[in-house]
Every structure is written in C-alpha cells, then in structure tokens.
Specification:
The chain is mostly helical. About 70% of the residues lie in helices and about 5% in strands. The protein has helices at about 20-65, 70-80, 85-100, 105; strands spanning about 5, 15-20. The protein has a two-stranded antiparallel sheet. The chain is rod-shaped, with a radius of gyration of 33 Å.
Length: about 110
C-alpha cells in the first residue's frame, strides 16, 4: 500500500495522505480475487476435460459399432456402451441379424 503526500497539505502542520483506492481494494480482497480466479480456472479445465472424455467415448463407441458384423459383436457393443446412443443402433442391428437367422423370439 502506498501513501502519497498531498502537496496542498504542505501548509498545515499535519501531513495529509491520499490512498489509492485500487491498492486498498486489492489489499482487502486479494485472497478472494485469487481464490475466485483459481476456481474459475478449475471449472474451465473440468468442463473441457469432460468434453474431451465424452467425445473420446463417443468415437470409440461409433468405431466399435462400425466394426461389428455378427450378433455377438452387436451384443458386445450393447454391453460395453449401454448408455450411449450407439447401443440403440446396435440393438436394432442385432434384432435385424437375429431375424435374418429366423430367431424371431430372440429378436423381439
């Protein structure tokens, strides 16, 4: 914190000081400002990390479905990526495959 002597106060016996309002604000709240900045950075990193992981999982699920050719492959995709939209596609392809093999009860 810096104090500057006011030149107009030179005529009086007591020195008068100007306090820079930004410096005073910084001294009083620097912990909160730094903490808020760190929290914001952590949130941004977490969001980007979640996006990257989600996209990687989606790509892996799509690649697994693209390489699946048999009923067992479709079941493996459904088991491994059960909560993704690809699992629904694999279920439909599994049913189609089973109907092609005349296994109608299992296809339903």
């Amino acid at each position: 914190m810096t104090f500057k002597q006011n030149p107009a106060a030179a005529a009086s016996d007591e020195p008068e000081y100007e306090i820079d309002s930004f410096e005073l604000l910084w001294e009083q709240h620097k912990g909160k400002v730094i903490g808020g900045a760190v929290a914001l950075i952590v949130i941004v990193v977490a969001v980007f990390g979640w996006i990257i992981v989600t996209n990687a999982r989606k790509s892996a699920a799509e690649a697994a479905l693209a390489s699946a050719k048999s009923a067992a492959d479709y079941r493996a995709v459904i088991d491994h990526y059960g909560s993704s939209p690809v699992a629904g596609d694999a279920s439909l392809l599994l049913a189609k495959s089973l109907r092609g093999g005349k296994k109608y009860a299992e296809a339903n």
